[in-house]
Design a protein that fits this description.
220 residues, alpha+beta, Elongation Factor Tu (Ef-tu), domain 3, 3-stranded antiparallel sheet, 7 helices, 12 strands, 33% helix, 29% strand
Length: 220
């Protein structure tokens, strides 16, 4: 399979792999036929992931293997929330799809509108809860039938530089706390480490970060 191959997975279990020109019409047809929903070319491509793993580089020649988390796209009916806003029921287990974490911070689109937040469990179901200010447009109000596309937000363990990933992997407590942090704090740690100019400085910062994370500190 060549490097231009794309993979699309639907929450219903349907999957298609092919070139961009093959994936787009196949996905659009599946949406119309199975879910009675339409999608633009850009929306389909936002759902797609490359069917190859790409090796890239970061500062100081530390390799980063891009194992991007899977983007999940599914149809949903927005549910009203007491006090205003809407709730989006997530039809999959985020722990199985994205790994077991204390919190899942996500970003994506709902009915074409950008959205971000934290997934929460309510009466056994997983939801993304959005406040009244987000759904002022009636097209994304309670009762609306929309297409939802979500992906974990911010740095993920699978996409960290190899040296940082190895250090966190050796300390499960530090890794779990790192993955539970809001995006702002995860970015803070990664940017601080990537800002090191010399290898010995970088190694020292990684060690300090692991100690701080083991101690439950959101910032170094």
């Amino acid at each position: 399979m060549d490097a231009t191959s794309l993979r699309v997975r639907c929450a219903c279990g349907w999957e298609f792999v092919g070139t961009e020109d093959e994936v787009v019409p196949a996905t659009q047809e599946h949406g119309r036929r199975v879910h009675n929903m339409s999608a633009t070319r850009d929306e389909v491509l936002a759902m797609a992931t490359a069917d190859t793993k790409v090796e890239t580089k970061v500062a100081d020649d530390h390799p980063r293997r891009d194992v991007a988390p899977q983007r999940m796209t599914f149809p949903a009916t927005l549910e009203p929330r007491r006090g205003g806003g809407v709730a989006v029921r997530v039809p999959f287990d985020p722990a199985q799809t994205w790994g077991d974490k204390d919190r899942h911070y996500v970003t994506g689109t709902i009915g074409g509108y950008s959205a971000r937040g934290t997934l929460r469990t309510v009466d056994g179901d997983v939801y993304l809860l959005l406040g009244p200010a987000w759904c002022r447009d009636p097209r994304v109000g309670a009762g609306a039938h929309v297409s939802v596309s979500l992906i974990p937000e911010g740095p993920q363990f699978g996409t960290l530089p190899a040296d940082l990933k190895e250090a966190l992997g050796a300390e499960p407590g530090a890794r779990r706390f790192f993955e539970s942090l809001a995006t702002f704090y995860r970015n803070g740690y990664v940017d601080w480490i990537d800002g090191a100019k010399r290898p010995e400085t970088r190694a020292k910062r990684i060690a300090e970060a692991v100690v701080a994370l083991k101690a439950g500190r959101r910032q170094r």
